[in-house]
Amino acid sequence: MQLSFLGGADEVTGSKHLLEVNGYRVLLDCGLCQGHRWEAYQKNKELLVEPSKIDALILSHAHIDHSGLIPYYVKSGFKGHIHSTFATRDLCQVMLLDSAYIAEKDAEYISQKLAKNKLKPVPALSTVADVEPALRLFHAVNYNRWFEAVPGVKVCFVDAGHVLGSAIVLLEITEGKRTFRMTFSGDLGRNGLPILRDPTIVEQSEVLIVESTYGNREHEPVANIRENVKKIINDAIGRGGKIIIPAFALERTQEMIYALHQLFEANEIPEIPIYVDSPLATNVTEVFQMHPECYDQEVFQEFLEKQSNPFGFGRLTYVTTKEESMALNGLREPAIIISASGMCEAGRILHHLKNNLEDPRNTILLVGYMVEGTLGYKIQEGLSPVHIFGDPYEIKAKVIKMDEFSAHAGASELRAWIGQIKGLKKVFLVHGEKSAREALGEYIREQLHVPEVNLPVLKDSYQV
Ligand SMILES: [Zn+2]
Ligand SMILES: [Zn+2]
Description:
Elements: E1 2-7, E2 16-21, E3 24-28, H1 37-45, E4 56-58, H2 64-67, H3 70-75, E5 81-84, H4 86-116, H5 131-135, E6 138-140, E7 147-150, E8 153-159, E9 167-175, E10 178-184, E11 207-211, H6 225-238, E12 243-246, H7 252-265, E13 274-277, H8 279-289, H9 297-302, E14 316-318, H10 322-327, E15 336-339, H11 349-356, E16 363-366, H12 375-380, E17 386-388, E18 391-393, E19 398-401, H13 411-419, E20 426-430, H14 434-446, E21 452-454, E22 461-463
Parallel strand pairs: 3-4, 4-5, 5-6, 10-11, 11-20, 12-15, 12-16, 13-14, 13-15, 16-19, 20-21
Antiparallel strand pairs: 1-2, 1-22, 2-3, 7-8, 8-9, 9-10, 17-18
Helix pairs in contact: 4-8, 6-7
The protein binds zinc ion (2 copies).
């Protein structure tokens, strides 16, 4: 078998790993490179494998850095099945449409810049119209069901505990007389995250492709979420202000809603209104409601068995229209506003920040990772004033960062998960910056005594 790394190896976005076995080609994930617009555009445009020659695509989860190039590959000739869990398929419907819309806007922006230098405009790699043909190719499979993707490659999804529908991909590969197990971690979640089940322990595998995002860093414990959210909300209400929460539409928003619902039920925070002001987050939450098969035991015990909806309760309003969103600017009493985008680069969160950042009674609660250079990062680092729609705003609101919600396994969680896999002969570390991969690689080599540990870079190819 030949294993080639076509993206997301020595970086955290653009995941694409190609298996060539028995004359067939199987692509693991088809992610979009994210980052600086023009560089990302060029990277995404370059097809390192002819899409029409890929026989099947196996998708670990719906995050755009794993799924975002699917419409472009389909448009460029891919005709095989896209295998994923049911929840991933349904999330892709809303996530890919949103991503295509952003891609169209980005292409317009790049083209305007190029026009200033008398250069030709560039088209979006794929558009909203390209999403529907891609969705038709999905073949959804439940967790823990083996199926044959191509002759000699059997596949089974088990829970990765990262986002709704996320999977660790188990592969059983037969080439001639040789059969071996390979595991692709996808993005690995954490034990105890709200809503989701814990990542599945893989007992045996000869080959492992594993993410390493936090290979050298730890997170605050998940167990602190409830207590810390309670403290922050009560303190903010005590100061008579609003609480603005920039949150990723997928998973972080639903986890925050869930935590707040639990706190209300237990009378641990006062009854103030909560607004979810992001059309994407609202659509994603609808997909969450359709997939109770992905929930952990706690959701059943605390909500479903009591016929209560974990994502809907009296205090909570999903804001849809622009007018309703604008009306939130006039709110004078304490309220919680959850909005996207998570890194404050676009979307309705910008209006809420603009209107609330300069009032010291307010709280900005940051619950996600902020890439350097983004508005979210500048707020996190207190780089006041920040510019929103071209105007400067002083950061006078209280800014609090919570790291407890991270959906990625931290260093010790990664080490423990890998350490439980018996029979490892070859490990490939992907989805990580240099220092993270090196730290985790050293541990696997020195402490777990795996004979071959690889840190592939883009276009590297291995005989496995
Ligand atoms: Zn992910
Ligand atoms: Zn990822």
